[in-house]
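Good morning,

Attaching, inline, the backbone tokens for the sequence recovery test we're adding to the shared suite. The designed sequence is right after.
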């Protein structure tokens, strides 16, 4: 279950006791006669979060109650209300909804959506790092609500894995929109230059002067992408100072083992100069979508997340996202020790050798850990020290408690003229050596700087047109440039050879810049389209190959297997190389080719049915009729008649000749034996009267020869 949280850690025991008493007073109460406060979820130095119920709408909600020291400040309350209204007006499926805000006596509170699931931090803890398709999918779903916020002139200022919620079904939501500015308004703190954020995700301008705009969110999103791909943020250190110092002075490292387009996304989003980054989240989202399309990577489902086990209420050092950001929705059960809080940092000037002052990481009191993505705290500017010397920037150690006691000065001893002259010679010699050393060092520095600015920093794009892809990329990388390869059809350049580069050969770039290498795929090939496909499918396949499509009824063909109106094949045939822009004809089926009814007259019924079926017709038996041309039981004719071409109904009626009986042979004058054999062979029965001996002669028969009688008729013979 997700509960609203997002409160910074706090350490002092007195402070913890006060909050515990405040929590005890709130739990079970009813805010403005509507919101019943339930169990404590998380608490911190600026706010406390409870699970609650909206009694009017009977729905579970998350309730954040701000600390009394802020709720007693009229300027904070006014700013808090304005920012809460702005965040509530931000309607986007990827934004955790703000339902309501209000003031009940001395309690300033915020009512937010209650989500079910875990955070991106939980997903990273479970997997270590994410593959490229999943990382890009999560980043796009984070940038989409950020883009909506930027269009509404809201800056998040605290983008980090703990503020990326993963709900049921892989829904990704971003929490803590727009409310950071309510806490950072002048009058809330003693120093109006205090800035907010999480140290591992702070942009350089947030560290140096406290300013933040849409490009600061882009920087944090770039750091978030780096962490998803590698499993760790780009800058970590033993304390928060060293981490912020590196944000200002170091470049974010190149992401290893990922496509060049993905590494370039991280580099562009995390440039130290804000004007070199994408203008806002919408511009960065467009670049991410372009890179994903170029790599052919499809969006994937975000897996379900199992939240970390919660820290028992009341334990010291529990955290959420940040009390400084008046944040929105978060996760419960939540592992407070795993979630970073929002930094409150005093900005300082940055230059060579200047230490960056900001807050130390927020960590559990009993288990300190190195600074990284987890946690921050407020730190007065007077406590900032140089990370190298451990002394205040520009300060020096003097005597005092614990220091060495100054020795009393002795009166100077009078020197002889010879000693004074020798000291002058030594001083002059030392000054000469010093000035000569300064001149030499200055000359070397000027020379190196001039070389770097004029030659060393610049790389020229080599000419690799016509070379094989592997050779071309190797040449460009040897010139201290990066490559990204794409392909394109060409009528003239063979497959695998370079068509062009972007920028073209001879262009001067800064070392490490990206050069797009366009490689030929050769002539386009007529695509394979499955027989029976729809016309629209064939048109899309042809267009994707860089070709044109057309329909020509004259080219349509009959097909026994493909239904009428479906694709039979293409002309030219699939697999044929053709010029770019060639028109390919889609051959459609005209259905089964019409055939004439075969002549089955005189054949048996079974023979006629088999021949008609093989020809694609549906034979049915019709009524029998007498025929003088064929024997009974054989086909007299068909309906439709033989030779008729059918275009619609394929049913053919078969007319069978009626059985006309047996032709009685004439056996008069023949011997009885011979007559009997001949009649029996014709299928007739025989009865002999008067003389039944085989050698007797037949003088008469009951049915005259030549007449037809039914088979099995008895013929009576008179023999003598």
């Amino acid at each position: 279950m997700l509960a609203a949280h997002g409160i910074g850690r706090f350490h002092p025991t007195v402070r913890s006791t006060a909050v515990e008493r405040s929590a005890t007073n709130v739990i079970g109460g009813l805010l403005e006669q509507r919101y019943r406060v339930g169990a404590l979820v998380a608490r911190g130095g600026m706010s406390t979060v409870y699970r609650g119920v909206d009694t009017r709408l009977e729905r579970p909600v998350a309730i954040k109650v701000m600390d009394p020291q802020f709720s007693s400040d009229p300027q904070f309350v006014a700013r808090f209300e304005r920012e809460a209204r702005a965040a509530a007006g931000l309607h986007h499926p990827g934004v955790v909804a703000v339902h309501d805000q209000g003031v009940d006596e001395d309690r300033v509170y915020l009512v937010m959506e209650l989500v079910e699931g875990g955070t991106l931090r939980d997903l990273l803890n479970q997997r270590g790092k994410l593959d490229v398709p999943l990382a890009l999918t999560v980043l796009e779903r984070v940038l989409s609500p950020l883009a909506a916020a930027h269009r509404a002139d809201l800056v998040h200022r605290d983008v980090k894995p703990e503020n990326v919620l993963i709900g049921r079904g892989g829904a990704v939501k971003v929490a803590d929109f727009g409310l950071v500015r309510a806490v950072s308004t002048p009058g809330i703190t003693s120093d109006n230059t205090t800035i907010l954020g999480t140290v591992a995700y702070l942009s350089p301008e947030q560290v140096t002067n406290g300013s933040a705009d849409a490009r600061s969110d882009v920087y944090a999103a770039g750091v978030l992408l780096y962490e998803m791909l590698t499993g760790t943020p780009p800058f970590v250190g033993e304390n928060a100072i060293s981490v912020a110092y590196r944000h200002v002075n170091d470049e974010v490292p190149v992401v290893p083992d990922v496509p060049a387009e993905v590494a370039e996304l991280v580099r562009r989003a995390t440039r130290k100069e804000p004007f070199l980054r994408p203008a806002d989240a919408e511009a960065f989202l467009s670049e991410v979508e372009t890179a994903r399309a170029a790599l052919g990577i499809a969006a994937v489902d975000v897996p379900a997340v199992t939240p970390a086990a919660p820290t028992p209420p009341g334990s010291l050092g529990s955290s959420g996202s940040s009390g400084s950001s008046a944040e929105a929705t978060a996760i419960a059960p939540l592992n407070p020790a795993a979630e970073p809080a929002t930094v409150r940092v005093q900005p300082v000037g940055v230059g060579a050798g200047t230490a960056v002052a900001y807050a130390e990481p927020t960590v559990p009191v009993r288990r300190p850990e190195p600074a990284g993505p987890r946690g921050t705290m407020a730190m007065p500017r007077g406590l900032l020290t140089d990370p190298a010397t451990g002394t205040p920037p520009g300060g020096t150690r003097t005597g005092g408690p614990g220091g060495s006691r100054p020795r009393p000065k002795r009166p100077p001893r009078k020197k002889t003229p010879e000693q004074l002259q020798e000291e002058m010679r030594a001083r002059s010699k030392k000054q000469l050596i010093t000035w000569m050393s300064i001149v030499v060092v200055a000359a070397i520095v000027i020379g190196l700087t001039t070389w770097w600015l004029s030659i060393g920093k610049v790389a020229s794009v080599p000419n690799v047109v016509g070379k094989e892809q592997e050779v071309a990329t190797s040449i460009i990388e040897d010139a201290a440039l990066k490559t990204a390869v794409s392909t394109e059809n060409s009528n003239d350049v063979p497959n695998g050879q370079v068509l062009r580069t972007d920028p073209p050969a001879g262009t001067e770039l800064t070392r490490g810049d990206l050069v797009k290498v366009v490689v030929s795929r050769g002539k386009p090939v007529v695509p394979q389209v499955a027989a029976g496909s729809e016309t629209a499918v064939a048109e899309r396949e042809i267009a994707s190959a860089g070709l044109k499509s057309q329909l020509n009824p004259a080219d349509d063909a009959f097909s026994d297997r493909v239904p009428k109106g479906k694709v039979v094949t293409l002309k030219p045939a699939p697999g044929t190389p053709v010029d770019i822009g060639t028109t390919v004809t889609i051959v459609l089926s005209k259905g089964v080719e019409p055939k004439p009814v075969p002549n089955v007259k005189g054949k048996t019924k079974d023979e006629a049915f088999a021949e008609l079926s093989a020809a694609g017709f549906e034979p049915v038996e019709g009524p029998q009729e007498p025929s003088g041309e064929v024997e009974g039981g054989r086909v007299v004719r068909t309906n439709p008649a033989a030779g008729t071409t059918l275009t619609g109904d394929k049913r053919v009626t078969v007319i069978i000749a009626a059985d006309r009986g047996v032709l009685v042979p004439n056996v008069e004058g023949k011997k009885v034996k011979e007559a009997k054999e001949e009649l029996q062979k014709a299928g007739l029965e025989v009865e002999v009267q008067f003389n039944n001996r085989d050698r007797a002669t037949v003088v008469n028969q009951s049915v005259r020869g030549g007449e037809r009688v039914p088979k099995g008729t008895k013929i009576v013979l008179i023999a003598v």
